């Protein structure tokens, strides 16, 4: 069996999804996602210029050897652009494998460990009251877990992922008006003084059963993160995400020494080498990698197994930039993983997106039910795809009031 051709598509409804389609001499094809938010043309170029010409003629069933061939064979290993491109190839090869076996991928991993996988939605508000309404909306829809972000009084500009003003609707951080990033201004003191009380109020309002998550988005220094983690303990969070950048990983020991709030990290990681220390030293409770950014199902399954040995559960990244293909790959891992934790969920469900990526994966009462169709269980409508083109966009940056560039 041989790979005969592969094509890359860039575009989608309000997003620049990078979709790979691998064709074979037996008519079976596989689909994968290489979307690297706001840098979408780069994995697409790597696929087109180098990886696809090398794929043609290979046996698509040898997904492990093909992964090693690209990863080790590149000499300069890893990085987000390359790993997203390998991720798409790997997903597509697993899709082919599942279709050849006539089985959904979760069966190839070891079968289902659960019926539905708990997801969390994003609730946001310009202020706390606005956020309360947003949370209530998801609770009414049956969500069991909600990530909560709100505007901070006196903050010089809207902080991470919150609308500028009440009623401004959902805030999607990418901006498609051009490639120059917008600037947000951040004040750590105001955030640290306000947010613990706000989280406690949310807990009071919604009671003990709702799983409440909060994303700090790398804004705090390690000592501040330790103080903040301790201050939010009364709110009984499901997790506190990215309290500090995870480049200096030993620094998380300080937070661990002062607080027991569960910690989730990893959405910007590209490989097992970015998280093996955090997992082995048990400095985190949830690993946030995404199947696309971390190089595909093959390497992510290894991360999940390592995590399981250290009581670390999964909480895969599921930002709006991930296409339904990445979300499907994660859904199959979520159905199988003995150490599944939760799944971030924002993508599926808009009519335009469903038309581009038809599937029968479904969400019900805050649980994601994986498709039983062979492979990933998602198709790609090329006629629909022809309606879209690449639109340059940007991700905001953040500065302190004196102009110092800060961590977004
Ligand atoms: C999350 C993330 C995202 C990122 C985005 C960057 O927890 O979902 O923090 O919202 O900001 O993926 O492109
Ligand atoms: Mg995050």
Automatic annotation (TrEMBL):
Q: What Pfam families does UniProt report for this protein, alphabetically? A: MR_MLE_C, MR_MLE_N
Kindly state a single biological-process term from the GO annotations of this entry: carbohydrate catabolic process
Q: What does the record give under GO molecular function?
A: magnesium ion binding; mannonate dehydratase activity
Pinpoint the Mandelate racemase/muconate lactonizing enzyme C-terminal domain residues. Answer: 128-262
Task: Give the UniProt family note.
Answer: Belongs to the mandelate racemase/muconate lactonizing enzyme family. GalD subfamily.
This one is known as: D-galactonate dehydratase family protein
Q: Which organism is it from?
A: Meridianimarinicoccus aquatilis
């Amino acid at each position: 069996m041989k790979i005969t051709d592969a094509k890359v598509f860039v575009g989608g409804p309000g997003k620049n999804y990078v979709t790979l389609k691998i064709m074979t001499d037996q008519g079976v094809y596989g689909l994968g996602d290489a979307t690297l938010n706001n840098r979408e043309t780069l994995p697409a170029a790597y696929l087109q210029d180098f990886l696809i010409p090398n794929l043609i003629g290979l046996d698509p069933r040898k997904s492990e050897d093909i992964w090693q061939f690209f990863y080790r064979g590149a000499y300069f290993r890893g990085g987000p652009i390359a790993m997203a491109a390998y991720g798409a190839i790997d997903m597509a090869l697993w899709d082919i494998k599942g279709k050849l076996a006539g089985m959904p991928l979760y069966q190839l991993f070891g079968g289902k460990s659960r019926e539905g996988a708990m997801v969390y939605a994003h609730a946001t508000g310009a202020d706390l009251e606005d956020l309360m309404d947003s949370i209530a909306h998801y609770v009414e829809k049956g969500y069991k877990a909600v990530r909560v972000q709100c505007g901070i009084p006196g903050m010089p500009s809207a902080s991470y992922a919150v609308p500028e003003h009440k009623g401004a609707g959902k805030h999607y951080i990418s901006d498609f008006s051009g490639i120059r990033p917008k600037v947000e201004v951040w004040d750590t003191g105001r955030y640290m003084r306000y947010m613990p009380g706000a989280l406690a109020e949310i807990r009071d309002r919604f009671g003990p059963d709702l799983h409440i998550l909060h994303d700090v988005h790398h804004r705090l220094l390690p000592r501040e993160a330790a103080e903040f983690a301790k201050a939010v303990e009364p709110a009984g969070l499901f997790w506190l995400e990215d309290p500090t950048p995870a480049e200096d990983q030993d620094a998380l020991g300080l937070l661990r020494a002062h607080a027991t709030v569960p910690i989730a990290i990893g959405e910007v990681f590209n490989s097992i080498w970015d998280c093996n220390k955090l997992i082995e030293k048990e400095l985190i409770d949830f690993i946030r990698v995404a199947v696309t950014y971390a190089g595909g199902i093959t390497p992510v399954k290894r991360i999940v197994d390592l995590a399981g040995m250290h009581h670390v559960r999964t909480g895969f990244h599921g930002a709006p930039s991930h296409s339904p293909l990445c979300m499907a790959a994660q859904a199959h891992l979520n159905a199988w993983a003995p150490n599944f934790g939760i799944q971030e969920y924002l993508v599926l469900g808009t009519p335009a997106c469903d038309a581009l990526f038809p599937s029968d994966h479904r969400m019900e009462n805050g649980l994601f039910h994986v498709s039983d169709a062979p492979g990933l269980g998602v198709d790609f409508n090329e006629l629909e795809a022809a309606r879209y083109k690449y639109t340059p966009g940007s991700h905001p940056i953040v500065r302190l009031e004196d102009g110092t560039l800060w961590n977004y």
